[in-house]
Amino acid sequence: xxFSSLPIxxxxxxxxxxxxxxxxxxxxxxRQLREVDTDxxxxxxLLWISTGFTIFAVSRSFSHILKQFLVLTANMDxxxxxxxxTGAVNTVSFMLVGLITLFFNQSxxxxxxxxxxxxxxxxxxxxxxxxxxxxxxxxxxxTEMLTxxxxxxxxIFEQSLDTIVMTDEKLRVTEINQAGITLTGYRKSDMLNRExxxxxxxxxxHEWQRIQHLLDxxxxxxNEETDFLRSDGSQVRVLxxxxxxxxxxxxxxxxxxxxxxxxxKKEMEQQIAQxxxxxALGELSAGVAHEIN
Length: 293
Fold this sequence. Notes:
The protein is α+β, with helices and mostly antiparallel strands and 293 residues long. It folds into two domains: 6-117; 160-274, Beta-Lactamase (2-Layer Sandwich). The protein is built from seven helices and five strands. Helix 1 runs antiparallel to helix 2 and helix 2 (41-72) packs antiparallel against helix 3. It is rod-shaped.
């Protein structure tokens, strides 16, 4: 009887050992895949289900080998005692595999949503990166334009033949070009250190009061003619144009003035007027002399 069952026994024993080996190899492969990509839901499912099958294979193989051993040694009574426990382990392990499969169905749906969201996030990231590069390029272009404009404005400011003065809200000089330094006779550092105001350069206080009133009411002045007081006490006739500048982002207001020296023009007009008077007087004298003769 034993020899007639030997082939079946060998197949059962070899099959049990092979099942354990295959299950362990599958579990090891699933673990390696899981380590390669920890976020992959398929690899996680393979690891779980391989674990369940390994438990099932070990339990079933152990129970089969133990059963054959007890049968061969005529200890069937012991097998009758422990067989319900080995069957329970097999049942639990098989139920575990089924539960893992059912749970994976829900996990896969969640994973699909996650993958979809990830795709959208990656697409958004690409768009944001493109926008960021475009923004950086625009910032560079705008910076270059502003730098160029500032350079041009600075050249106009420095090379202007007319005096250009910038002041704070209290009309104290904060910036003046080279033409202004020549006109006033003061050094720029002296004007800034002494916090000189535009009013100190006007020869007549009432003229400055009138200009201040225009700035307060109209916020600008246009070609106001007045006497300009230089550092040596001499006066020149000038035309003053100016206005209020309101700073951006809540900065305080400031003023700018363009002062044109018309002293030479006035002197020439006076000379022309004097020449006209002399010419008229000469004509009158000639006419009187002619009448006398």
